[in-house]
TrEMBL record, chain A:
Keywords: Membrane, Transferase, Transmembrane, Transmembrane helix. Belongs to the UPP synthase family. GO terms for biological process: polyprenol biosynthetic process. This is Alkyl transferase. Its EC number is 2.5.1.-. One of its GO terms (cellular component) is endoplasmic reticulum. The chain crosses the membrane at residues 19-41, 62-86. Pfam families: Prenyltransf (PF01255). Signal peptide: none annotated. PANTHER family: DEHYDRODOLICHYL DIPHOSPHATE SYNTHASE COMPLEX SUBUNIT DHDDS, DEHYDRODOLICHYL DIPHOSPHATE SYNTHASE FAMILY MEMBER. InterPro entries: UPP_synth-like, UPP_synth-like_CS, UPP_synth-like_sf. The keyword Lipid metabolism does not apply. It comes from Lolium multiflorum (Italian ryegrass).
TrEMBL record, chain B:
This is Alkyl transferase. It holds the Pfam family Prenyltransf. It is an enzyme of class 2 (transferase). GO terms for cellular component: cytoplasm. PROSITE patterns: UPP_SYNTHASE. Keywords: Transferase. It comes from the Eukaryota. InterPro entries: UPP_synth-like, UPP_synth-like_CS, UPP_synth-like_sf. Belongs to the UPP synthase family. Its cofactor is Mg(2+).
Amino acid sequence: MGKPDETMTTGVVATLLKFVRRCIIAVLSYGPMLGHIAFIMDGNRRYAKVRSMKEGTGHRMGFSALIASLLYCYEMGVKYITVYAFSIDNFKRDPSEVQYLMELMEEKINELLEKRDVINKVKCKINFWGDLDMLTEPVKLAAQKLMASTAGNNGLVFSVCMPYNSTSEIVNAVNELCAERRDIAHKEHLGNCNGHAANNGAHSDISVADLDRHMYSHGCPDPDIVIRTSGEARLSNFLLWQTMFTHLQNPDPLWPEFSLRHLAWAILQYQRVYPYLEQNKKLAKKQL
Amino acid sequence: MLLSQSPAATHPQLPTSSSSSRRTHRSAPPCPRAGAAPAAAASLLPPGLRAESLPRHVAVVMDGNSRWARARGMPSAFGHEAGRHALEETVRLSRAWGIRALTAFAFSHENWSRPKLEVDFLMGLFERVINDSVAEFLRDGIRLRVIGDCSRLPASLQRTAREAEEATRSNSQLDLTLAISYSGRRDVVQACRSLAEKVRAGLLSPEDIDESLFAGELETSRGSYELLPCPDLLIRTSGELRLSNFLLWQSAYSELFFTDTLWPDFGEADYLEALCSFQSRDRRFGRRNL
């Protein structure tokens, strides 16, 4: 059960693999490189089941695959990576599995905090997108600590969606925007009573940009591709607002099997349709 | 204010979260699972399809008309006319196989950027299609609805659409929704504006807004009969692997089916393939199968 990055660090085979990796990355860099990849990391449990492993092993191997993908993306010049780590719907799973996942997340977050080699290598800024109040207290604190300790980094931006639902994100943005408008209207009303002129802030029509400002993803460009592993073709309430022009891919490998060659293939697919995607984006943006 | 149709209310067997948070958004997923499609006798279904696992609501992104026409050296109008026939066939099959609702993405808000000649042709085509189809809708029990930003549509098309909606209001065999000048993001924004107005008027507070209430403000939830705003299956033709701003909120849990077939060529075989693919999917809604 070796981790992918460990096998690459020793021996002739490792050197050869490193050379091949550099070649693949060099070839890909001839085409347009994407700025933002999002992953729906599906298939951890099935991976363990198929190999008759203990159920939690699949998730652990999935984490290794995630770190490996992060490093490959960084080498290729991808600036933003977003992953669907835990959906709000996943709370409906068996309580023992939910607890295991919470403990695993806490363990891995603390590992990143303590070891820091991955973070330092890619100068990673880590965000957590989701309602952190839904997490158990130790996980929430660890997540907040990790965000704070990487806030000043200016390299790869790694956004972890947990616990997350796109519909919750939209409703949260609507709540905040409505509250903001109500407060502005209230201040204007007080201002009017005191004889000050209204600045019309509460009455201007709400726009796409206004809602965008309150999304967790504000400040991050929309994903260029969303990759959902294990062959399932649905978004499962992930980044619905942000994927207007995103290229959707659903390769068959289960998430722990996702490797450099799958990533390279995904990028090649994107580069193939890039001119058409860009043309449509330009036309669409005229109407936004 | 419309009574918002909470999926949990219409489908009581769906589990809800037991979280005690004050926020009620942690409830059943916004879209119910596919159940048995009513109406169709098993004998009407082609081999390979099972009535109990058909989607109740299918959405189609009718992409590829222009490319189809270009491949034949014809103007895009030719492709759009051919696309009309493909839609009519899809409506006929949906009704025959007992699919409860069909939503077709006829014209997106982004399509206003197309050449004026093409846009004018399409507006005329929509009006002709709706006019020509009303009698058939009445005969076959099809209820028509048009969603989208109607303010940009020609007045005659708006009138035709409203009259057809009115005439077919009491039909119940198939709900056909045409999305014309529709944008998923704009739908979300208009729902937000509507709620912000209610907050401003003191009718509710921002904390009252949950997923169910929000979903009730979307265009697809308008009309007292709308119980199936969310597609179980979303089909996109012509090989485009994108959602392109269609039914953004409503397709949260939709199974996606992408086919390289251009829309005018989409027929019974392609529809069958999409439905068979849907039947083989394992829909978990974030949970595990028991």
